[in-house]
Design brief:
single chain, about 425 residues, seven-stranded mixed β-sheet, 14 helices, about 50% helix, elongated, transmembrane helix, transmembrane, MetalloPept_cat_dom_sf, metallopeptidase activity
Length: about 425
Amino acid sequence: MDGSRSGRRDAPALVAAEREGSLDLRVDVGVLVAHAPETDPDRLRSFAARAAEDVVEELASATDVSWRFYLEDPARLTDNDRRRPSEFLDRATHRMVEGPYDLVVVVTDVPLVSSRDRFVPGLASPLSRVAVVSTRNLRSAPRGEPRRSLEQDAVRWNAATLLVHLVGHVLGARHRGADGGVMEPFQFDPERRGVPPIDADVERYLHRIAEEIPATDARPRGRLARLAFHARSAVRNPGRILRALVHSRAPLLPLSLPKLSTAALTPTLVIVFSAESWDVGFHMGNVTAALFAAVSVLVAALYLLFVQNLSFPRKRHRVVTEHTALVNVTVLLILLLAMVGLFVLVGAIILVIELVVFPPNLMSNWPSLEDPAVGLVDLVRTGAFISTIGVLSGALAGGLENRIIVSHLTLFPDRP
């Protein structure tokens, strides 16, 4: 970050590593250790500090900017359970704002799993500029052999390679072919004794975006000012948000949240057999039905965002960074698309019931119908009305925990 931001640091954390670059810019990286209850935090902090020392020169030479790694106080986890990287977002964004930092690296010793429940050594989120490294995978050994220790050279240099690889992803670099460079898909190499070189094309790319690395931040006063800063951040970075939305597969999110889907579908299975709901659906205009559905989907998304406290960081701060603003905008859009997906899912089930289960002439004989002819448009409109009620009930009565929702936001890719 630039000099003005470094002057705001009230209580500097321990500088784990630093390297000066040729450009008058500096990237501040916060290193957060999140350890299991029985783990010695000092040992894990030493490992994280050594990894920072191993990578700082490589990053500085590739970008021509100065890099400084700050070692934060360790955070004790509640248990040894496996975690998705998105579960560390709350701690990471909190430290990013308090630092303030341009990037945050989380080092943990609990198992790390991707959105597809695959064990991975680490993952990075370019949108939030957060990388998570798990030593559990790095220390694993072939069957019949003891687990590797953090002090072994293989663990040390694979961790350094993985860290450079993830930071490259954070800065927008993509996987390269199997050319031996640091941006090729990461695989643990027991014979590794150094950090592979950064590919020339990747180095030129990192050098080109060097001036964009320091994070933009602001001190908005009031809710409207914060909202305006979030909107400006989204307008400046539409591509990053769009890539995150495409990767998230947000409309399919309800399929991995059974409580939400159940809470939405259960009341609709009762309402669909209610004569009153059919009267309302048949006599409702198409425009009214569409507006009711759109407003309900938006209200359901906002309800989950604010009531479940899904904005980052959870604690209020005077400083808001562009990265946290982009994460918040993306989370809202993911929830909005998830509610659209839930609406389509419930609506499709209701439409199948209308077309297959109900007798074809049942509704046409109802005395409340002015026109006894019941067409497909009438069925779709009535199904949309009923599914809209399901979306609202799903958001209001889903009983979802924050951790469950956050772990499925898929702001991180599936592989390192």
